[in-house]
Amino acid sequence: MSRPSRRSVVPAAECLEPRAMLTGSEALSADPVRHIQFAGRSWTVKESDQPVGPGPNYFSAGEQSVWVDDAGALHLRLRNEGGVWKCAEVYSDWIAAYGTYRFYIDGRPDLLDRNVTGACFLYATDEKEIDIEFARWSQEDPGFNAQYVVQPWYHPGNMHRFSMSLTGTYTTHSFTWQPGAVYFRSWHDHSVEPITPDHLIQEWTYSGPDVPAEQDNLRVHLNLWLYQGAAPSDGQEAELVIKAVDLPATPTPPPAPQPSAWVVIGDRRGAAARTLAYTDADGSKVKITMTGGLARAGLAGGVRIAPAKSGTIDVGRAVDIVSIALSRTDGASALVFSVSGGADNLTDVGTITARTLIGKISAGSVLLMGGGLRLTGAGAVGSLNLRGLRNGAGVLAAGPVPGGMTFNIRSIASGSVVDVRRGPVSRAVFSGPMRGVFAAGVSPGADAQFFTDDDVVTYRVRVDSLSLARGSAGSLSAGAPRGLLLGPRVGSIDTGTPVRPNTGACVDGAGFEARVLPGPAASIAIVLSRDDEVYGRVGDVAPEYYKVLLYAYTNAWYIQPWLGSELSIDDDLRWSAEDVKPGTLYAWLVRLDVKGPDVMWSPLVVDGVRVVAATTKTR
Asked: Looking at the domain 36-246, which fold is it?
């Protein structure tokens, strides 16, 4: 038997991790996130009041489910709360680094119920994951109760299963993660190395092609959960106690430069001039002009501020712009950069911030390298022209723009995110390498990672037009998640290839995917059924990127109206079918990449991601 994923299961189809199904208004709120201190580090406690992956299950962040005792041990407890089983999970608030990870467990993971899984693992995506798991995957006696895995598990040679029969409650489980290899070991007692050869329980080395790289941004996860959400077969609560964890040191990034001087420019009272002029470290001559507001620039390097002359203030040579804070701006305001000469006709800027709308930022020769463009509160930009994002710098536009936003960004590096919270977006153009994430109204779920199945639509941001340069993602190597994440209100999407969003295919085969997510009120209904005709409607999805699977039930579910049928959805969110057989009808709203079998013996599981909604009607 192949390893069951930690994701929920669509019978006879693929394994998925369902997101939380949401209801509510355009703006969705979340409870405050709980953090704990364990093993000298900060961890987030996962919580969900809707079934989510793995499982799907409910997760509790309560102190009865997850706590650190006076001795510093972490307790993860699977609990029954009023007939609802609540699972437990924590994940690191920091990114994992190469090195050795040791997990000191106090208990008998070899005796966990057949439906209960305990795991210590690194995770970034379903394909970038390193696992130590204690599980029987709902089997009574499968001949194993533990496994080492480097995902994807279904690749030959990526999984090693074994059986543990412990004689005590202290065991140590470890893996050493290196470029190109992972070395797993488990042994009796708590020690840095097995005390004697007889203490060794199991060891295995993986050196195949699927070893994640450090730049894939994995996090450490510890959890206790129910396979496929099934209650423990013995009806008993369970607990996983991790006395301690040995962790490699996380890389410390070099400190960001700190401003040594500040200059305010603009055309409001308090400005020293309208234009700031300087020469950067590689000799580029730069001018920054602010109209319709104020810009407070934080300067570092060879700062020598001269008196303002003809509306321009010169601040020196070999100058770095660490930060620019905008204020008193509105839809008519503009921040304009002019760059010439130097080694590349470009200049670097650290962070630009604002809390109000700014009409235009023209920075076609600017690379944002630090915190990026952070428009919080009501902050947004009507028109953004930017050369690129580097070193994890991103764009956050939290506020609305009544007339719509336009983006023209030349390049986005791996790890960078363009995050549009409200919009709308009239046009977004990525005219060069696109190696990051563009998210419009979509937020990562509890795992804080984009392109996992708990991504959620938080605002229905309208995106009228979006395009990528042809081949913009074609030369990418494996790295952080990248692609497009959009909600149900989308117009024209041009990925630069024939690949459509929601097909599960990657643009240019480069790991760059385009997804259009359902809204929180996604639904399907059979409106009318008479004779052999059926009519229905769907809600809160982009119709071009979803379809309907219709089945009639007799002794099983048979696809309608003929073998291989898939029903398209029109622009008015309607669907229809003729020549439908009599019987109880079932309709599923699914993504384009979901293939419906001609005959099913069990219904598709609604996970809120690929299988979005279902309905039934008896004729």
From this structure: Jelly Rolls (2.60.120)
